[in-house]
Every structure is written in C-alpha cells, then in structure tokens.
Amino acid sequence: MYTLFHHPFCPLSRFVRLALGEHGLDLRLVEERPWERRAAFLALNPAGTTPVLIADARPAIPGAGVICEFLDESHGPALGDRRMLPTVMDDRIEVRRLVAWFNEKFFEEASGPLVTERIYKRFMNEEDGGGPPAMDVIRAATANVRYHLAYIGWLARTRNFLAGDQLSYADLAAAAHLSAIDYLGDVPWTEDEAAKAWYARVKSRPSFRPLLSEWLAGVPASRTYVDLDF
C-alpha cells in the first residue's frame, strides 16, 4: 500500500496517480494544499510541492519525475511488454524527454498557471496569494495550450502513442496535464483531431476513472471532461 500526498487538480499528482493505476498498485490518497506549507508536509518534502509518495520502510519520494523512476525500477519489469519506461535505451530517452516536456514546460507555460489561477487561488488566503484570478496570466496560458496541443497532435499523427508504439509514461504525463485543464474547459479540442483521438484512447483506460470522479465544489466540469466520445 502506497500513500500519495497530492492535490486532486495538481497535474503532476494526476500523472503519478495514472502511473500507479497502470501498475495496479493499491493507493491511499491524502489531499495536500501545498500553499499552506504545513510543517509535517515540509518534513517530507522541503520544496513544499506535490506529489510526494510514501512507500513502506523507504524515505519519502518527492516529485513526479523521481516517483516515475522509482515505479519503473520497482514495478516496471513485472509489466513485461507493457512496461511504461521501455527497455531499449533510445526509446527510454524519448519517453524521458517527453515526460520532462509535459511535467516542466507544459506545466510552467499552461497547466500550472491555469490550475493556480482558476482553482488554487479560490482556496488560498490573501497572504498566501489568494484572490481574483489574474486574467492576463490566464490568457497567456490559454494561448500556450494551443501550441502544446498542436505538438501532441503532431506526435499522435506520426506514432501509435506519443513516444512510440506503446503506451508509456509520456502519454500519462500529457494526459494528466490535459485532464486538469479539460475540467476547466481550457482545451480547444476542435483544433486538432489527432490530439483529440489520442486523448480519448488514453482517457478510456481504467486508470483514468478515479481522476474523472474528481469534482470541485462551485466549479462545474466542462462537457468534455467525462464524455469518452467527445
């Protein structure tokens, strides 16, 4: 049994939840509001960011990238041909490149600002940075979503999955970030049919079901969020 300190709409936490689901691992979720900077949470991860995974008799495992590597080393071989991080070195490099692209670049330019402005700030005290959303930040992030969606579409048109022939951590990372902002209705799916079709495939996987059950009081989900045939 693993314990994951997460926020339901943290894109990085969602990526880890999808990875754990694909590995078929039991999970206990603990919701964390990182802006509160709880002393007990900072003891687990001094950076104060989600996600953080707790495994029995091991140090706390902070950060989506570190958790991804831990899961592959601990449970990857058991998946055989379905391993989320392939065994061939060139393929592993490409998966790692794309995971970093989505967890760093996409997060910084699009999903992170949108989730912060439209979700987190609703629950933050003024001294923690709460208040009305910054519309200039939202406009810039929404514009950036279009560029990233086009890149996903290009990958989806040239490969079976984003990093190659089979599902990998790269698909889970991209889908996790898109799912968080799709809840808000900030993904222009009509602009790229290849990206839309790829996302529908990933979204239909059993590992995705717990994410689609997440709801935020006062913020209705977009029409496409739970519609598998959108």
UniProtKB/TrEMBL annotation:
Residue span(s) of domain GST N-terminal: 1-79
Annotated GST C-terminal domain residues: 88-228
InterPro entries, sorted: Glutathione-S-Trfase_C-like, Glutathione-S-Trfase_C_sf, Glutathione_S-Trfase, Glutathione_S-Trfase_N, GST_C, Thioredoxin-like_sf
Transmembrane feature ranges: none
Protein name in the entry: Glutathione S-transferase-like
UniProt KW keywords: Transferase
GO terms under biological process: glutathione metabolic process
Ranges in a coiled coil: none
PANTHER family: GLUTATHIONE S TRANSFERASE D10, ISOFORM A-RELATED
One MF annotation (Gene Ontology) recorded for this entry: glutathione transferase activity
SUPFAM superfamilies found in the cross-reference section: GST C-terminal domain-like, Thioredoxin-like
The keyword Transferase is annotated on this UniProt entry: yes
Annotated source species: Rhodopseudomonas palustris (strain BisB18)
Subunit composition and interactions: Homodimer.
